[in-house]
């Protein structure tokens, strides 16, 4: 077998895998079909392009499983986390980034490594020899998807992932909207005012729900089914589940005070998050949608403060393909039928930028260790990264397998701690302390 590692897909997982393997001394060829072959969601040919939100979610490494995953990736010299820190935007307790320079920096840093080559062509089949990682993500091309399906002997699972609209800041009416993070969360004034809020009274909310339910939606192609991931539901699907669903989800009014009318409690609040460092673009939080473009502009301009909104990008919807990993992959992320091939990222059945990058980190280190002839202990299950890979490669029920975010429900319990909501703070701190120690011990194998 050749000593070169080939990685297919230059998203979060592929970029992180290339970075990790290269820093362990392995020669890497990163294959990215963009911009020669375009996708529905991507705008550029940059590596690490963010196509949905610009947020890596919570950065709290003591009380949040996503924040803990951030910590573990930083401890492992993660490309995605270090680049995110470089292009960080105020977002309360979340880690949000200026997406364009973020992707440009990821691309530049990888291309600057002497043992990384970026090849821009489409890979359409599964090679029979060599060391390969496939990190083609939710938009795996049709030809490659067919090759994977043929090899696995089972149909690839799929759901639809929706993209939230982005609005020009100067088109928002600030006499109605205001800047505030929920519960004034954040250590600085900039963090405490990281979100833009648009309030609705009850009549406005009810009219909005009516319009949302009646709006023209994108039709699915014949033979496709809409199996949405609950963490990324289109707003109209949430509204169809009940008129109050949005008001208890992305439009919840809690923790916010309208300075224009401090004595009036909003019935619902739409939040927007800054999408670039200049503060000229804002994306609507939790407003992924499959409404047709004309319907989007009409319905979203019903939101107080957005009556004259100008859209930099309207929402959209795309197919998200993933493997039944508990059936198909071993605990080294190798395809059982072809162990020269690993899979990483969202195609393995994890959901989210952070989780995808973390699986890339693991795949890159595992592949590099195999190429270099090093024994690598099993990833500790008590770490966030280990809990996630354990879930997708065997911990999940194969018959009902669905994409999963990292969460403390995947962690083994800590003996002697109180269960339930009241004991949650102590329990989460115990999880994160245990995870950090286990992860650092595992990383020591590479020193």
Automatic annotation (TrEMBL):
SUPFAM superfamilies attached to this UniProt entry: FAD/NAD(P)-binding domain (SSF51905)
EC number(s) per entry: 2.1.1.74
Keyword Cytoplasm: yes
Example of a GO biological process term: tRNA methylation
Secretion signal, residue range per the UniProt entry: none
Molecular-function GO term, any one: tRNA (uracil(54)-C5)-methyltransferase activity, 5,10-methylenetetrahydrofolate-dependent
Positions bound to FAD: 9-14
Pfam families: GIDA
Reaction catalysed by this enzyme: uridine(54) in tRNA + (6R)-5,10-methylene-5,6,7,8-tetrahydrofolate + NADPH + H(+) = 5-methyluridine(54) in tRNA + (6S)-5,6,7,8-tetrahydrofolate + NADP(+); uridine(54) in tRNA + (6R)-5,10-methylene-5,6,7,8-tetrahydrofolate + NADH + H(+) = 5-methyluridine(54) in tRNA + (6S)-5,6,7,8-tetrahydrofolate + NAD(+)
Localization terms from the record: Cytoplasm
UniProt keywords, alphabetically: Cytoplasm, FAD, Flavoprotein, Methyltransferase, NAD, NADP, Transferase, tRNA processing
Gene Ontology cellular component list: cytosol
InterPro entries per record: FAD/NAD-bd_sf, MnmG-rel, MnmG-rel_CS, MnmG_N, TrmFO
Required cofactor names: FAD
Domain of life, source organism: Bacteria
Record domain MnmG N-terminal: where: 5-374
Function: Catalyzes the folate-dependent formation of 5-methyl-uridine at position 54 (M-5-U54) in all tRNAs. NAD-binding protein involved in the addition of a carboxymethylaminomethyl (cmnm) group at the wobble position (U34) of certain tRNAs, forming tRNA-cmnm(5)s(2)U34.
Record family assignment: Belongs to the MnmG family. TrmFO subfamily.
Protein's name in the database: Methylenetetrahydrofolate--tRNA-(uracil-5-)-methyltransferase TrmFO
Annotated gene: trmFO
């Amino acid at each position: 077998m050749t000593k070169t590692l080939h990685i297919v897909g230059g998203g979060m997982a592929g970029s992180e895998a290339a970075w990790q393997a290269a820093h362990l001394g392995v020669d890497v060829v990163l294959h990215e079909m963009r911009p020669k072959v375009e996708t529905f969601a991507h705008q550029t040919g940059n590596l690490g392009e963010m196509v949905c939100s610009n947020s890596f979610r919570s950065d709290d490494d003591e009380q949040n499983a996503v924040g803990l995953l951030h910590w573990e990736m930083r401890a492992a010299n993660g490309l995605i986390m270090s680049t995110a820190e470089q292009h960080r935007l105020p977002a309360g307790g979340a880690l949000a980034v200026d997406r364009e320079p973020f992707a440009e920096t990821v691309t530049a840093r990888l291309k600057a490594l002497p043992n990384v080559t970026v090849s821009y062509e489409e890979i359409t089949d599964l090679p029979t020899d060599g060391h390969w990682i496939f990190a083609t993500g939710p938009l795996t091309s049709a030809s490659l998807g067919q090759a994977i399906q043929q090899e696995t002997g089972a149909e690839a699972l799929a759901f639809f992932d929706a993209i939230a609209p982005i609005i020009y800041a100067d088109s928002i009416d600030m006499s109605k909207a205001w800047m505030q993070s929920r519960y004034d969360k954040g250590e600085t004034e900039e963090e405490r005012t990281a979100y833009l809020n648009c309030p609705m009274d009850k009549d406005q909310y009810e009219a909005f729900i009516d319009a949302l339910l009646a709006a023209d939606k994108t039709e699915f192609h014949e033979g496709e089914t809409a199996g949405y991931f609950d963490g990324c539901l289109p707003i109209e699907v949430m509204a169809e589940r009940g008129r109050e669903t949005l008001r208890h989800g992305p439009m919840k009014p809690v923790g916010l005070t309208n300075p224009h009318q401090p004595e009036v409690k909003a019935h619902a609040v739409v939040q927007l998050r800054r999408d670039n460092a200049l503060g000229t673009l804002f994306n609507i939080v939790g407003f992924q949608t499959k409404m047709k473009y004309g319907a989007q502009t009409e319905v979203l301009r019903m939101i107080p403060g957005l009556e004259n909104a100008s859209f930099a990008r309207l929402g959209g919807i795309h197919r998200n393909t993933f493997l039944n990993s508990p059936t198909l992959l071993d605990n080294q992320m190798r395809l059982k039928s072809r162990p020269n091939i690993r899979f990483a990222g969202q195609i393995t059945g994890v959901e989210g930028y952070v989780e995808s990058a973390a699986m890339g980190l693991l795949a890159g280190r595992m592949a590099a260790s195999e190429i270099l002839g090093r024994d690598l202990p099993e990833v500790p299950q008590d770490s966030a990264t280990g809990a996630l890979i354990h879930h997708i490669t065997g911990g999940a029920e194969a018959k009902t397998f669905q994409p999963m975010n990292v969460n403390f429900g995947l962690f083994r319990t800590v003996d002697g701690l109180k269960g339930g909501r009241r004991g949650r703070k102590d329990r989460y701190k115990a999880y994160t302390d245990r995870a950090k120690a286990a992860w650092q011990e595992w990383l020591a194998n590479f020193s």
